[in-house]
Amino acid sequence: xxxTPESAELAHHGLSGAxxxxxxxxxxxxxxxxxxxxxxxxxxxVQADASITRKYxxxxxxxxxxxxxxxxxxxxxxxxxxxxxxxxxxxILDLACAEDSTTDASPQLPAGIRALVIGEQAAAIQLLxxxxxxxxxxxxxxxxxxxxxxxxxxxxxDLAILDLPGWExxxxxxxxxxxxxxxVVLLPGDASVDGDLxxxxxxxxxxxxxxxxxxxxxxVSALGGETSHRAPPPPSPFDATxxxxxxxxxxxxxxxxxxxxxxxxxxxxxxxxxDIAGDGHAALAAVQQNEYDLIFMDIxxxxxxxxxxxxxVRSLGSAIRQPAIVAMTAAASTEDRIxxxxxxxxxxxxxxxxPERLLDVLASMRPESENESADDLRTGATTExxxxxx
Length: 390
Fold this sequence. Notes:
about 400 residues, Heat Shock Protein 90, Rossmann fold, 3 domains, five-stranded parallel beta sheet, 14 helices
């Protein structure tokens, strides 16, 4: 499947008072869906081709969740597909029209502003360019970093806007080479403000996602020679020394490679290097070769699923060191929790993964004598019980 900015469409179907019907369309260039399978594709854990689960691992909840959300919002969802060509998914919602946000108090831009726009994410840059055009700002986006030095400068630009995944001093240096071009820097929400960045003159720093009115104020501020560092980053829930203070040997059982990386990265930022098993069979082999304190077990996997693997681990009894087993799944119904507990699991973590929830689990694995809660292990997170039992 190929996902590009061009694969999504948005259209409105005229206004009806304060309500506008809005249709969203997403195009998938995958294998397509046969006509006889279309009625089933919105059911849990259904794939258009049964071999997908065997080859790539079990999913199938995405469309179920989408349908439930659309139903809750009073809309409709449907699809059009042709096997071998791809599929177009549509949903339509009646949305309330927002009031005009333009007010007399909005900051005013001087006429004839020229901006240099620098970024690495094409879709984000396109949105930024469209907004600048609406404000009457002429803009240029260099294709190569080597172009920065030749394109920047007071003779050509009044302002530079940098939308980067992270802080890159080289790009800023090239922009301000020979002049102090006013800067607006857009940073990811969890990125820290570099010390050198704070010392630059005429700079405004915003954290993504950025609201239009905040961007407009930042541009006006930078053009006026002011320096603004808005919204300090939220406290990090990560403590890289946690594993040293509270060592645990962890096995992560997950068939989806992306989920593997996400969970492993979160654990890694806490200092834990988890072993990884791609399915239930590999997990069963791992516990017979190594002693684990904790297993994060995906429920829906091809071959031996998480429930079956848990029962197999528990059936080994005292032949192995019995670890705590915590379920990982996007399904969080009462029936799911009962099934996990019956299989022999000790806890439950919902997907998508959040550091705070994994910290709750790690805190629950602590010996009673140490008596340190999840709140003691992190800053600014809300404690959530992961036990399967009431």
